[in-house]
Amino acid sequence: MTRIWNESGFQNDDPWVIETEETKAGSNQKPIVSLQSFIERAEAGETGLGVLIQPADDVRRVAPYLDRIALVALSFPAFNDGRAFSHASLLRERVGYAGEVRAVGDVLIDQIPLMLRVGITSFAVTNPVALKRLEEKRLPGIDVHYQPTARPAKKAEGYSWRRVS
Amino acid sequence: MYRYDEFDHAFVAGRVAQFRDQVERRLSGEISEDAFRPLRLMNGVYLQLHAYMLRIAIPYGTLNAKQMRMLAHIARKYDRGYGHFTTRQNIQFNWPKLEDTPAIMEELATVEMHAIQTSGNCIRNVTADHFAGAAADEAADPRPYAEILRQWSSVHPEFSFLPRKFKIAVTGAERDRAAIQVHDIGLHLRKNDKGELGFDVYVGGGQGRTPMVGKKIRDFLPEEDLLSYVTAIMRVYNLYGRRDNKYKARIKILVHETGVEKLSAEIEEEFRHLRDSELKLPEEDVARIRAFFAAPALPERPEGWANLAAWKKADPDFARWVDQNVKPHKHPDYGMVTISLKPIGGIPGDASHQQMDLIADLAEEYAFDELRISHEQNVILPHVALADLEAIYRALKPANLATANSDLITDIIACPGLDYCALANARSIPVAQEISKRFGSAERQAEIGELKIKISGCINACGHHHVGHIGLLGVEKKGAELYQITLGGSADNETSIGEIIGRGFEPEKVTDAVETVVNTYLGLRLSPQETFLEAYRRVGPQPFKDALYGATAEAA
Description:
Oligomer: heterodimer
Shape of chain B: globular
Order of helices and strands of chain A: EEEEHEEHEHEHEEE
CATH superfamily of the largest domain in chain B: Sulfite Reductase Hemoprotein, domain 1
Number of strands of chain B: 20
CATH architecture of chain A: 3-Layer(aba) Sandwich
CATH topology of chain A: Rossmann fold
Strand content of chain A: 25-35%
Radius of gyration of chain A: 16 Å
CATH topology of the largest domain in chain B: Sulfite Reductase Hemoprotein, domain 1
CATH class of the largest domain in chain B: Alpha Beta
Structural class of chain B: alpha+beta
Strand order of the largest sheet of chain A: 2-1-8-7-6-5-4-3
Largest sheet of chain A: 8 strands, mixed
């Protein structure tokens, strides 16, 4: 089963549902919709929306509607599809979106530290090894870095590209 | 060379701990081999035909004696006493036990080495001219920039799951010895009229199934924009590179399918946003990195000139070795020495632990503690006084390391092939050995002159056959091994992809076929100064086809 995790721990009352043909958000839930549908609803004046960015989507298209977004979900259909890492970077650095960004799909424990660094803030986790490790608070990251990324990090001694978290 | 500080040590220690945890998860059965595979690959651990293989990074091929001794130690303690230097200036060990690999990483970390990103769909070891810092034709040493790229790309969170592997090469010399036009990104460091440094940027070169020569997309990118521009390329590739077919996933296919104008416009647009970001390189940082690569103080050693002449006169074998394996250094009293890992009939690129220890000793005693690995799978002593050449030769000879064949027909590049590799269709090593034996006589090699043979055991082209003057590609046809011959490839400034000359040859006939090609060349060259490649470019494939298949066979 899928659980939502962020850096303060597992979140129990998460309202977000990725809408599909079969699954629709209930009355006490909030929908995450496709980019196209999001743009239509944002154009129509809706706010508080969740939008799902698929790997082939252009994430920059959400830029005109930042005040309408409550959550951006980035899809990782498979662990080795790294496009959402660039989506996250663009969303934070270029588009300037500051709200919640959630990784959905094949979210694995070894990738979560990297996802955090590009600005992803919450995780829909199904993988049993990942769930177990997160429960044990064992995140396998490295806390010194050789490159600036979207997540703010302190500069380290030495070269301009070094960061520590 | 670059030296780690506390930050670098902390990073490598963190990566070793991460890897140890991943190996433990696998050994305990917590994760399956399928889940483990991408994790081990990011740290250079492959599963081959018979065992795990570990590939250790030698950034831009530069190492010192202490590091070489560590490689010898690993060969002794964890492997079967030898290692294999690769065409990416790295080293592979073919027989480590998985449970030993974290300990190997820990030992490597003590001499500032690692195996980070020697495999996987990420930015691989950045390669550079093996004569960097010593060659006379150099505008500037490319290694500071290779080092900056190495650091910046290490565990880069945005670019760790690219469509496919990604290879960057840098040269700072007029003559390209780093094969930059067959890399995903090739950087040519130049000086402009004002004395400033910048890069010509090539993108989309590569070998493999679909060999392509890189396209120049930038003239003289300012030095300070290096990381911003490379980030722009990487981001465009990460977003738009094909992921539906691993054989079409390299950036060369994206360049080809999108068109170089359109793709470079997208890169420039991305770069426009990134140019004034935190990625801009401060001059003081570049200067600090550059200082690590300052050439050693080379004392005047003019006595070498007379000594060398006398030694050469007294010993024709020594003379041949000097003429072939020692290249002019920018300091006239010095030379750049190629230690051949291609003994006649040997396995190209292999070195025993004793040989590695000996090379380390010589580097310390005579060569300012500097060593390089060339992409042609040899070891280089970049700074050697002419006055010390005789002593080095005397030490190398009994260790079977003094073969005078640099750039000659027996200086063969070969992939590990079907003897080790799970991907191979055919063996490479035995073919290389047989060709080496056939042309082993020093006189015959000298007569033939510069001729690069490159052998790959499958279409992935790890043996660089596409850019061999003579390339051999092992294929499997109806259960039997067959070797296709390509002619006219080259990876220098005039990079070209070799042309397939005709149907393939069985293992027992391929050496004869190579000999036919060589004899045809000898018969048609205008003078002994006209190299094989020059002659091929002049006459084209037909005389070789006629010689191999008969004048009428082509129509049949």
